[in-house]
Amino acid sequence: MNIYVSVDMEGIAGVVLREQLSKGEALYNEARHLLTAEVNAVVEALVEQGAKKIIIKDAHGSGFNFIPELLHPGAVYCMGATPVARRFPGLDSGFDGAILLGYHAMAGTGQAVRDHTMSSLSYRNIELNGKPVGEITLDALLFGLHNVPVLLVTGDDATCREAKQCLGEVTTYATKEALNRHAALIKSPKLVREELKQSIGTALSQRPQCKPLKLEGPYELMVDLMTTDLADSRKVDGTHSIRLDGCRILYKDQDLLSLLSRGL
Ligand SMILES: [Zn+2]
Protein backbone atom coordinates (compact mmCIF):
# COMPACT_ATOMS: atom_id res chain seq x y z
CA MET A 1 0.00 0.00 0.00
CA ASN A 2 1.33 3.43 -1.01
CA ILE A 3 -0.02 6.63 0.58
CA TYR A 4 0.59 10.28 -0.33
CA VAL A 5 0.09 12.84 2.45
CA SER A 6 -0.24 16.58 1.79
CA VAL A 7 0.28 18.66 4.92
CA ASP A 8 -0.90 22.19 5.58
CA MET A 9 -0.42 23.95 8.91
CA GLU A 10 -3.62 25.81 9.82
CA GLY A 11 -5.49 22.66 10.81
CA ILE A 12 -2.73 21.11 12.92
CA ALA A 13 -3.58 20.57 16.60
CA GLY A 14 -2.81 23.66 18.69
CA VAL A 15 -2.52 26.04 15.73
CA VAL A 16 -4.97 28.94 15.94
CA LEU A 17 -3.09 32.22 15.40
CA ARG A 18 -1.49 33.96 12.43
CA GLU A 19 1.70 34.31 14.54
CA GLN A 20 2.11 30.53 14.42
CA LEU A 21 2.08 30.32 10.64
CA SER A 22 4.92 32.38 9.16
CA LYS A 23 8.68 32.42 9.46
CA GLY A 24 10.00 35.10 11.77
CA GLU A 25 6.81 35.29 13.83
CA ALA A 26 7.08 34.78 17.59
CA LEU A 27 5.16 31.51 17.79
CA TYR A 28 6.28 29.93 14.49
CA ASN A 29 9.04 27.72 15.86
CA GLU A 30 6.81 26.22 18.52
CA ALA A 31 4.17 25.54 15.86
CA ARG A 32 6.76 23.76 13.69
CA HIS A 33 7.26 21.33 16.56
CA LEU A 34 3.49 20.70 16.77
CA LEU A 35 3.42 20.17 12.99
CA THR A 36 6.37 17.78 12.94
CA ALA A 37 5.03 15.72 15.86
CA GLU A 38 1.64 15.34 14.16
CA VAL A 39 3.28 14.31 10.88
CA ASN A 40 5.34 11.72 12.78
CA ALA A 41 2.20 10.28 14.37
CA VAL A 42 0.71 9.86 10.89
CA VAL A 43 3.83 8.15 9.52
CA GLU A 44 3.95 5.84 12.56
CA ALA A 45 0.31 4.86 12.01
CA LEU A 46 0.78 4.31 8.27
CA VAL A 47 3.87 2.14 8.83
CA GLU A 48 1.95 0.12 11.45
CA GLN A 49 -0.87 -0.36 8.91
CA GLY A 50 1.58 -1.77 6.39
CA ALA A 51 2.17 1.19 4.06
CA LYS A 52 5.21 0.54 1.88
CA LYS A 53 5.76 3.86 0.17
CA ILE A 54 4.82 7.07 1.98
CA ILE A 55 5.46 10.54 0.53
CA ILE A 56 4.74 13.50 2.78
CA LYS A 57 4.47 16.90 1.08
CA ASP A 58 5.11 20.00 3.20
CA ALA A 59 2.45 22.13 1.50
CA HIS A 60 2.27 25.21 3.74
CA GLY A 61 3.71 28.55 2.56
CA SER A 62 7.34 28.13 1.52
CA GLY A 63 7.01 24.35 1.84
CA PHE A 64 9.73 24.27 4.47
CA ASN A 65 8.06 23.90 7.85
CA PHE A 66 8.84 20.37 9.08
CA ILE A 67 11.90 20.11 11.33
CA PRO A 68 14.05 17.66 9.33
CA GLU A 69 16.10 16.43 12.29
CA LEU A 70 12.96 15.23 14.08
CA LEU A 71 11.21 13.48 11.17
CA HIS A 72 10.19 9.80 11.42
CA PRO A 73 12.45 7.65 9.19
CA GLY A 74 9.51 5.72 7.67
CA ALA A 75 8.62 8.22 4.91
CA VAL A 76 10.09 10.42 2.20
CA TYR A 77 9.44 14.14 2.70
CA CYS A 78 8.99 16.68 -0.08
CA MET A 79 10.11 20.08 1.13
CA GLY A 80 10.43 23.45 -0.61
CA ALA A 81 8.12 25.32 -2.96
CA THR A 82 6.80 23.60 -6.12
CA PRO A 83 4.58 25.10 -8.86
CA VAL A 84 0.91 24.07 -9.12
CA ALA A 85 1.63 21.72 -12.03
CA ARG A 86 4.14 19.88 -9.78
CA ARG A 87 2.31 20.38 -6.49
CA PHE A 88 2.70 16.72 -5.56
CA PRO A 89 6.09 15.49 -6.78
CA GLY A 90 6.40 11.72 -7.01
CA LEU A 91 2.61 11.26 -7.27
CA ASP A 92 1.49 8.64 -9.79
CA SER A 93 -1.33 6.14 -10.18
CA GLY A 94 0.62 3.64 -8.07
CA PHE A 95 -0.67 5.37 -4.92
CA ASP A 96 -3.66 3.78 -3.17
CA GLY A 97 -4.87 6.92 -1.43
CA ALA A 98 -4.15 10.42 -0.20
CA ILE A 99 -4.44 12.15 3.16
CA LEU A 100 -4.97 15.92 3.52
CA LEU A 101 -3.55 16.70 6.97
CA GLY A 102 -3.95 20.00 8.82
CA TYR A 103 -6.14 21.63 6.16
CA HIS A 104 -8.47 24.64 6.51
CA ALA A 105 -11.81 25.81 5.14
CA MET A 106 -12.11 27.83 1.90
CA ALA A 107 -12.00 31.64 1.81
CA GLY A 108 -15.14 33.26 3.16
CA THR A 109 -16.20 30.39 5.45
CA GLY A 110 -17.59 31.73 8.73
CA GLN A 111 -16.41 30.34 12.08
CA ALA A 112 -13.34 28.66 10.60
CA VAL A 113 -9.70 28.95 11.71
CA ARG A 114 -7.67 30.88 9.10
CA ASP A 115 -10.19 30.31 6.30
CA HIS A 116 -8.61 31.11 2.93
CA THR A 117 -7.96 29.68 -0.52
CA MET A 118 -4.32 29.51 -1.65
CA SER A 119 -3.44 32.89 -0.10
CA SER A 120 -5.25 35.20 2.33
CA LEU A 121 -3.47 38.17 0.72
CA SER A 122 -4.25 37.32 -2.91
CA TYR A 123 -7.70 35.73 -3.23
CA ARG A 124 -11.14 36.71 -1.96
CA ASN A 125 -12.72 33.75 -3.71
CA ILE A 126 -11.94 31.13 -6.37
CA GLU A 127 -14.60 29.39 -8.47
CA LEU A 128 -14.18 26.37 -10.70
CA ASN A 129 -16.90 25.80 -13.32
CA GLY A 130 -19.15 28.22 -11.44
CA LYS A 131 -18.74 26.75 -7.95
CA PRO A 132 -16.61 28.17 -5.10
CA VAL A 133 -13.70 25.84 -4.35
CA GLY A 134 -11.13 25.63 -1.58
CA GLU A 135 -7.86 23.80 -1.27
CA ILE A 136 -9.56 20.52 -0.33
CA THR A 137 -11.32 20.37 -3.71
CA LEU A 138 -8.37 21.71 -5.73
CA ASP A 139 -5.95 19.20 -4.19
CA ALA A 140 -8.44 16.31 -4.39
CA LEU A 141 -8.78 17.06 -8.14
CA LEU A 142 -4.99 16.96 -8.57
CA PHE A 143 -4.95 13.55 -6.85
CA GLY A 144 -7.96 12.56 -8.99
CA LEU A 145 -5.94 13.20 -12.18
CA HIS A 146 -3.86 10.19 -11.10
CA ASN A 147 -6.95 8.21 -9.99
CA VAL A 148 -5.92 8.54 -6.35
CA PRO A 149 -8.84 9.00 -3.89
CA VAL A 150 -8.60 11.21 -0.80
CA LEU A 151 -9.20 8.91 2.18
CA LEU A 152 -8.84 11.25 5.15
CA VAL A 153 -9.07 15.01 5.73
CA THR A 154 -8.12 16.65 9.05
CA GLY A 155 -8.45 20.22 10.32
CA ASP A 156 -11.02 22.20 12.28
CA ASP A 157 -14.70 21.26 12.26
CA ALA A 158 -15.42 23.63 9.32
CA THR A 159 -12.72 21.85 7.29
CA CYS A 160 -14.33 18.50 8.04
CA ARG A 161 -17.76 19.74 6.92
CA GLU A 162 -16.30 21.13 3.69
CA ALA A 163 -14.50 17.83 3.01
CA LYS A 164 -17.72 15.82 3.36
CA GLN A 165 -19.55 18.28 1.13
CA CYS A 166 -16.88 18.19 -1.61
CA LEU A 167 -15.78 14.58 -1.47
CA GLY A 168 -18.78 12.65 -0.14
CA GLU A 169 -17.32 9.37 1.11
CA VAL A 170 -14.26 10.41 3.10
CA THR A 171 -13.14 9.99 6.71
CA THR A 172 -12.62 13.27 8.58
CA TYR A 173 -11.03 14.09 11.89
CA ALA A 174 -11.46 17.43 13.71
CA THR A 175 -8.39 18.64 15.61
CA LYS A 176 -10.33 21.64 16.99
CA GLU A 177 -13.71 23.34 17.00
CA ALA A 178 -13.46 26.80 15.46
CA LEU A 179 -14.96 29.77 17.33
CA ASN A 180 -13.82 32.37 14.82
CA ARG A 181 -10.91 32.99 12.43
CA HIS A 182 -8.40 33.17 15.29
CA ALA A 183 -10.01 31.22 18.14
CA ALA A 184 -10.94 27.59 18.72
CA LEU A 185 -11.71 25.01 21.35
CA ILE A 186 -8.60 22.90 20.93
CA LYS A 187 -7.83 19.33 21.91
CA SER A 188 -4.50 18.46 23.47
CA PRO A 189 -2.04 17.80 20.61
CA LYS A 190 -1.02 14.61 22.45
CA LEU A 191 -4.62 13.37 22.36
CA VAL A 192 -4.93 14.36 18.69
CA ARG A 193 -1.86 12.29 17.77
CA GLU A 194 -3.41 9.25 19.48
CA GLU A 195 -6.87 9.74 17.94
CA LEU A 196 -5.37 10.36 14.50
CA LYS A 197 -3.93 6.86 14.49
CA GLN A 198 -7.43 5.45 14.95
CA SER A 199 -8.80 7.70 12.20
CA ILE A 200 -6.10 6.49 9.82
CA GLY A 201 -7.12 2.88 10.55
CA THR A 202 -10.75 3.77 9.81
CA ALA A 203 -9.84 5.72 6.65
CA LEU A 204 -7.75 2.88 5.21
CA SER A 205 -10.47 0.30 5.93
CA GLN A 206 -13.07 2.48 4.15
CA ARG A 207 -10.90 2.94 1.08
CA PRO A 208 -13.13 0.81 -1.22
CA GLN A 209 -15.95 3.38 -0.77
CA CYS A 210 -13.77 6.40 -1.68
CA LYS A 211 -13.73 7.58 -5.30
CA PRO A 212 -11.08 9.78 -6.91
CA LEU A 213 -12.50 13.29 -7.42
CA LYS A 214 -13.07 14.06 -11.11
CA LEU A 215 -14.48 17.02 -12.99
CA GLU A 216 -15.39 16.93 -16.66
CA GLY A 217 -14.02 19.67 -18.94
CA PRO A 218 -14.08 22.20 -20.48
CA TYR A 219 -12.98 24.21 -17.49
CA GLU A 220 -13.47 27.77 -16.26
CA LEU A 221 -11.58 29.20 -13.31
CA MET A 222 -12.69 32.55 -11.87
CA VAL A 223 -10.27 34.24 -9.48
CA ASP A 224 -11.57 37.13 -7.39
CA LEU A 225 -8.40 38.94 -6.37
CA MET A 226 -8.02 41.08 -3.25
CA THR A 227 -6.90 44.23 -5.08
CA THR A 228 -7.05 45.73 -8.57
CA ASP A 229 -3.22 45.89 -8.44
CA LEU A 230 -3.12 42.11 -8.34
CA ALA A 231 -5.47 41.94 -11.34
CA ASP A 232 -3.43 44.58 -13.23
CA SER A 233 -0.30 42.45 -12.83
CA ARG A 234 -1.86 39.50 -14.70
CA LYS A 235 -1.78 39.18 -18.48
CA VAL A 236 -5.14 38.63 -20.16
CA ASP A 237 -5.78 37.86 -23.84
CA GLY A 238 -9.56 38.45 -23.92
CA THR A 239 -10.29 34.90 -25.10
CA HIS A 240 -8.64 32.31 -22.82
CA SER A 241 -8.30 34.84 -19.99
CA ILE A 242 -10.83 37.62 -19.53
CA ARG A 243 -10.85 40.52 -17.06
CA LEU A 244 -14.47 40.47 -15.83
CA ASP A 245 -14.16 43.62 -13.72
CA GLY A 246 -11.69 45.34 -11.38
CA CYS A 247 -10.69 42.30 -9.35
CA ARG A 248 -12.09 39.26 -11.19
CA ILE A 249 -10.39 37.32 -13.97
CA LEU A 250 -11.83 34.30 -15.79
CA TYR A 251 -9.55 31.64 -17.26
CA LYS A 252 -10.75 29.03 -19.77
CA ASP A 253 -9.02 25.79 -20.74
CA GLN A 254 -9.68 22.25 -21.98
CA ASP A 255 -7.01 20.91 -19.60
CA LEU A 256 -7.41 21.18 -15.82
CA LEU A 257 -3.71 21.20 -14.96
CA SER A 258 -2.96 23.85 -17.57
CA LEU A 259 -5.92 25.93 -16.27
CA LEU A 260 -4.74 25.79 -12.65
CA SER A 261 -1.16 26.55 -13.67
CA ARG A 262 -2.31 29.64 -15.58
CA GLY A 263 -4.85 30.92 -13.07
CA LEU A 264 -3.31 30.28 -9.64
ZN1 LIG B 1 -1.27 26.83 4.82
Fourth-tier CATH superfamily name of the largest domain: Dipeptide transport protein
Number of strands: 12
Strand content: 25-35%
Largest sheet: 7 strands, mixed
Secondary-structure element order, N to C? EHEEEEEHEHEEHEHEEH
Can you tell me the CATH class of the largest domain?
Alpha Beta
Number of domains: 2
- Terminal CA distance reads 32 Å
CATH architectural arrangement of the largest domain: 3-Layer(aba) Sandwich
Which SSEs are present, and which pair or pack?
Blueprint: E1 2-7, H1 28-48, E2 53-58, E3 76-78, E4 97-103, E5 123-128, E6 131-132, H2 135-144, E7 150-156, H3 157-167, E8 171-180, E9 183-186, H4 189-205, E10 219-225, H5 228-232, E11 241-243, E12 248-253, H6 256-263
Parallel strand pairs: 1-2, 1-4, 2-3, 4-7, 7-8
Antiparallel strand pairs: 5-6, 5-10, 8-9, 10-12, 11-12
Helix pairs in contact: 1-4
Bound molecules: zinc ion.
How would you describe this structure to a colleague?
The structure is a single chain. 27% of the residues lie in helices and 25% in strands. It is α/β, with parallel strands linked by helices and 264 residues long. The protein has two domains: 2-115 and 134-209, Dipeptide transport protein (Rossmann fold, 3-Layer(aba) Sandwich); 219-263, no CATH class. The strands form two sheets. It has a seven-stranded mixed sheet, with helices on both faces. Strand 7, helix 3 (157-167) and strand 8 (171-180) form a beta-alpha-beta unit. The longest helix is centred in the N-terminal third of the chain and has 21 residues, at 28-48. It is globular. It binds zinc ion. Residues 8-10, 60 line the site of zinc ion (ZN).
